[in-house]
Design a protein that fits this description.
about 525 residues, alpha/beta, Rossmann fold, 4 domains, 7-stranded parallel beta sheet, 6-stranded parallel beta sheet, 21 helices, 13 strands, about 10% strand
């Protein structure tokens, strides 16, 4: 089948032929006819199969007739990242070169004022990321009740980035009679729920089993080990440089994926230090810088691009010959999207993955999803140093724990005192008892110093603790019964058995009004 058989607008066909394409891909062949009929389409295909043309060509054909009104776009294309949205906009400009359509791109990092001007003039095709679109809607600069065609591209990536609530809100703001074209490389349960809710009897187009890698990509796995756990990143950088040198001139353009932004920066500096032609790309960069880096990479001015997963979806750079997974992706689906940056449009490509012992659980999920193990390359298949090093690391991690127990034991003052310092404490007890015996009144205030001295003496030598501890434990047990005063143990001093004077006077009846008792 050729594009001439797809009933596209002649002006669109002419633009397609000018790009050099004559035969549609399987998903284009199956998705374009129902899209031209106005039916909802659910397209499932692995990355690099031409999903963008599957919805852009029928959209341009249908929008060729009609006129847009101010602040009321006729169609909407939602993309998860700025880079993908910008690339979709480029494709629309290419395919609509012979059709007069107004297009606007709403992404972050660009002035609101410039975007407002385009929306006010009337937009036929609005391409946006969910966050920026809702920002314009919240400011009252945009209305979505005139949407005739709505496209959700890379829906599974929307799920990974947490855009599902925004997608559901945008769906609720568009007319129920809209046509929906929904494309995704994988179909997680949450994406399936959305399609069941918002799509009306869609035509399901599935040209490849979900979560499968392209057959044109040769995959290789390198196990990396190190004598120390904290030396794994350095060992991985050494292995990466070795592979790049071995591939040599076979590398035209290569993307190196890292899981974290800070690792992107570290690896970029390392490769640059070793004299390699490299640039970096991640979400914290200014949008202008990100576009400049991508343009330089497409044009061949940059050979190596170290990137986060922001470059894993939708970027169509046909000349990428190699993909390196410096870090194993934590989500199995991301592996398919990463290696899908190479081997596009029928070309062959290579994908290398560096894995360590801690990455094994992620690697198992990837191989389970693929249905087969990734071939291990000779020379990188012995992670034994890392296996031997981990028990040592665990032992060293546990080594400081006794120090913590020492710090806790220093909380007691008695533990820091020497034998000579304890003797004055023992001598201090005798004067306390000598003062207490001749005292005629058992006032509670006078028993407090004796109680404190007892506590201080309990912090002395460990050999004295059993005797003191026994007395103190009895005092605690008797605290509720009141058999003996607190801190005295079984010994009851004789002065405490002397009858109180006030009781004797009350018996004599000399002062019945209690004045003498009050004075006592």
């Amino acid at each position: 089948m050729t594009f001439d058989e797809l009933a596209l607008d002649p002006r669109v066909l002419e633009a397609v032929k000018s790009t050099g394409y004559t035969t549609p891909t399987p998903i284009q062949e199956q998705a374009i006819p129902p899209a031209l009929e106005g039916r909802d389409v659910l397209g499932i295909a692995q990355t690099g199969t031409g999903k963008t043309a599957s919805f852009s060509l029928p959209m341009i054909t249908r929008l060729a007739k009609g006129r847009a009104r101010a602040r009321m776009p006729r169609s909407l294309v939602l993309c998860p990242t700025r880079e993908l949205a910008a690339q979709v906009a480029e494709n629309f400009e290419t395919y609509s070169a012979n059709v007069k359509l107004n297009m606007a791109l709403l992404i972050g990092g660009v002035s609101f004022g410039d975007q407002d001007k385009k929306i006010d003039r009337g937009v036929d095709v609005l391409i946006a990321t969910p966050g920026r679109l809702l920002d314009h809607f919240g400011r009252g600069k945009l209305m979505l009740n005139g949407i005739d065609i709505m496209v959700v591209d890379e829906a599974d990536r929307m799920l990974d980035m947490g855009f599902i609530p925004d997608i559901e809100k945008i769906f609720s703001l568009t007319p129920f009679t809209r046509q929906t074209l929904f494309f995704s490389a994988t179909m997680p349960p949450e994406i399936q729920r959305i399609t069941d809710t918002f799509l009306q009897n869609p035509v399901r187009v599935e040209v490849a089993r979900a979560s499968t890698a392209a057959e044109t990509v040769t995959q290789s796995l390198y196990h990396v080990g190190s004598d120390r756990k904290d030396g794994l990143p350095k060992a991985k950088r050494e292995v990466l440089r070795s592979i790049i040198q071995d591939e040599g001139d076979a590398i035209t353009n290569a993307i190196i994926f890292c899981n974290r932004k800070r690792d992107v920066a570290v690896l970029h500096k390392s490769l640059e230090k070793h004299g390699m032609d490299v640039a970096s790309l991640h979400g914290d960069l200014d949008q202008r810088v990100r576009m400049q880096v991508l343009d330089a990479f497409r044009n061949g001015k940059i050979k190596l691009l170290v990137a986060s997963d922001v470059a894993a979806r939708g970027l169509d750079i046909p000349d990428v010959s190699h993909v390196f997974n410096f870090d194993v992706p934590t989500h199995a689906e991301d592996y398919v999207h990463r290696i899908g940056r190479t081997g596009r449009a029928g070309r062959s490509g290579k994908a290398f993955t560096l894995t360590t012992r801690p990455d094994q659980k992620y690697l198992d999920k990837i191989e389970e999803m693929l249905g087969s193990p990734i071939p291990v390359t000779e020379g990188g298949s012995a992670p034994t140093p890392a296996l031997a090093a981990e028990p040592q690391d665990e032992a060293s991690a546990d080594a400081p724990k006794p120090e913590k127990s020492k710090r806790v034991s220093r909380g007691g003052r008695g533990s820091r005192k020497s034998g000579e310092e304890r003797k004055p404490e023992q001598r201090e007890e005798a004067p306390v008892e000598a003062k207490v015996e001749p005292t005629p009144a058992p006032a509670p205030k006078e028993s407090a110093p004796e109680e404190k001295s007892e506590r201080r003496s309990s912090r002395g030598k460990r050999s004295e603790r059993p005797e003191r501890g026994g007395e103190r434990s009895k005092g605690r047990d008797d605290r509720g019964g009141g058999r003996s005063p607190r801190g005295l143990g079984d010994h009851m001093p004789a002065f405490m058995l002397i009858p109180l004077p006030e009781l004797i006077r009350r018996k004599s009846g000399d002062d019945e009004d209690g004045s003498v008792a009050d004075a006592a």
